[in-house]
Amino acid sequence: MTEQISRMGRGLRIAAMGLLMAALAACASNFQADVSRFQSQLPAPEGQSFAVLADDPELAGGLEFSLYAKLVAEKMAALGYREASPEQASLLVRFDYGVDNGRERVRSSGFYRDPYFSPWYSYRSPYYRSRLWGFGFYDPWFDGGVDSYTVYTSGIDIKIDRAADGERLFEGKAQALSTANRLQYLVPNLVEAMFTDFPGNSGETVRITIAPEKN
């Protein structure tokens, strides 16, 4: 009987491990971002033009910034806004992005409650451009039984001003936790999350899940 119970215990542990790995794989397959958006009389697209500018002067004219700015421009154009030069645009879209240096996470014995679990927990992430911000996240990798790994915090910041008088019409921030720090992967997903159900409800923070690209 003791041996039978022992075999049952091993079987349950194996089954639980299989479920755990499946859950971890599911977490890794989708990109999740927390998106916060605020707007004040953002005009309808008809008759409106825009230009995407670097919110950080150090990024202006850079090839990498141009690549990501093009993604933002494509999203604006898909909404019906017309791209124009900064001198002729009626809307100026100021764009910034970044990723921090990462934080090492080490699992101790038993259940660990990461402070990011609480959506009300706040901190300021040490981006290499510190204007980007942070707020609470649920950390899926910690529940996956991983002993040690590095978590990176990435984010984008979009502001839309009326060119005629500089009035702020829209502010949006999107942030994500990941085990990858490649901006070429992170920024396109963050832009996709920002423009999902754009412009959203003013003052509301939502979690956007983006399915992985098909091979």
Q: What is the strand and helix layout of this fold?
A:
Elements: H1 2-29, E1 31-39, E2 49-54, H2 63-78, E3 82-83, E4 91-99, E5 103-106, E6 148-162, E7 168-178, H3 183-194, E8 204-210
Parallel strand pairs: 2-3, 2-4
Antiparallel strand pairs: 1-7, 1-8, 4-6, 5-6, 6-7
Task: Describe the protein.
The protein has one domain: Double Stranded RNA Binding Domain (2-Layer Sandwich). It has 3 helices and 8 strands. It has helices at residues 2-29, 63-78, 183-194; strands at residues 31-39, 49-54, 82-83, 91-99, 103-106, 148-162, 168-178, 204-210.
SS class: alpha+beta
Assigned CATH architecture: 2-Layer Sandwich
- Helical fraction: 25-40%
Low-confidence runs? 4-9, 12-28, 109-138
Helix/strand order, N-terminal first? HEEHEEEEEHE
Distance between the termini: 50 Å
Provide the residue-averaged pLDDT: 76
Strand content: 25-35%
- Integer tally of domains: 1
- For the report, how would you describe the main beta sheet? 8 strands, mixed
Number of helices: 3
Q: Summed up, what is this model?
A:
With 215 residues, this protein is α+β, with helices and mostly antiparallel strands. The chain has helices spanning 2-29, 63-78, 183-194, and strands at residues 31-39, 49-54, 82-83, 91-99, 103-106, 148-162, 168-178, 204-210.
